[in-house]
Write a structure and sequence with these properties.
Blueprint lengths: L2 H7 L8 E5 L5 E4 L1 H7 L3 H4 L10 H11 L8 E9 L5 E12 L4 E7 L8 H7 L1 H9 L3 E12 L4 H10 L2 E4 L3 H6 L21 H12 L4 E9 L5 E13 L2 E11 L12 H9 L3
Antiparallel strand pairs: 1-2, 1-5, 3-4, 4-5, 6-7, 6-10, 8-9, 9-10
Helix pairs in contact: 5-6, 7-9, 9-10
């Protein structure tokens, strides 16, 4: 058992949390036993190595950004993360990263829930005091759309788009920040409710879903058009992941943030979709 296991175990006696600590130079300072087992790696083989041994390039960029982040900003951040198993396969999870250490030598404790799709994240967050506190304090708006009738992703793109908007779906795993993005009081006004009022089918959102599909259901900064409680449309930038099993989409999930006027920079790899989103606005 590592020192990190001992610290986390005070709040997680069942040992379900996956956790690692990343140092200021983006090296792995420590890794919990549960995470090492889930990834199929030996702790001694990754401690001291670059965090790229555990995270894909997009996730690594996010960790670098957090390590360089202004210490006066909220210390806890949530984001979808892709981790790398020892055999080269990937695992999609929701992560909560908490910045600590000193201003000159920051560290990140990165918590993840187990399960190949992050499906246990909500249950764990509700039953575990450290995860519950962190997710509610997270600045990022966390969302998940659960499909009561899974979407067949083996068919054509047009058919996938139709199913995504036509199959019954509800919000789940939304936090308070997500509710506030829609001018709602708290997450109870979203979780368990139909997604269509706040995220309807329209030209912008069809373009958003096509971008998600084109990128293998793993995309950063995809633009959607959401609606606040009073019906006001607002553009949101989303980092998206998905739970797909046996050719069926069960959940779309991720984080979002509002696109502020004049504050959006089109990244080259998604310029066509982002430009289309703005052109399709009424």
């Amino acid at each position: 058992m590592t020192d990190l296991d001992v610290a986390v175990g005070l709040h997680d006696p069942a040992g379900k949390l996956l956790v690692d600590r990343i140092g200021a130079d983006a090296t792995v300072v420590a890794i919990g036993s549960a995470e090492a087992d889930a990834l199929g790696v030996v702790p001694a083989s990754v401690v001291g190595a670059g965090a790229g041994r555990l995270y894909d390039a997009a996730s690594l960029r996010r960790l670098h950004d957090m390590l360089a982040h202004d210490r006066h900003e909220p210390p806890a951040r949530a984001f979808p993360v892709t981790m790398l198993r020892g055999d080269g396969s990937r695992i999609e999870l929701m992560a909560i990263a908490v910045r600590g250490g000193t201003p000159d030598r920051p560290v990140l404790d990165v918590f993840k829930a187990p399960g190949p799709d992050g499906g246990e994240f909500l249950d764990l967050a509700e039953s575990n005091e450290i995860m519950r506190a962190i997710i509610q304090k997270a600045r990022e708006a966390i969302w998940c759309i659960r499909y009561d009738r899974p979407v067949d992703v083996t068919v054509s793109t047009d058919e996938i788009v139709d199913q995504i908007f036509e199959h019954p779906s509800v919000w789940c795993m939304c936090n308070t920040a997500m509710a506030r993005a829609y001018d709602l009081d708290d997450e109870t006004d979203l979780n368990g409710r139909n997604v269509r009022f706040h995220w309807p089918r329209n030209a912008v959102n069809e373009a958003f879903i096509r971008e998600v599909i084109a990128n293998g259901f793993q995309v950063e900064g995809a633009i959607s058009e959401d609606y606040r409680r009073d019906g006001t449309p607002v553009l949101m930038e989303n980092d998206v992941r998905a739970h797909i099993a046996d050719g069926r989409l069960h959940r779309l999930w991720g984080t979002l943030r509002e696109v502020k006027p004049g504050g959006f920079e089109v990244r080259r790899e998604r310029s066509d979709y982002a430009a289309l989103a703005f052109e399709l606005l009424p």
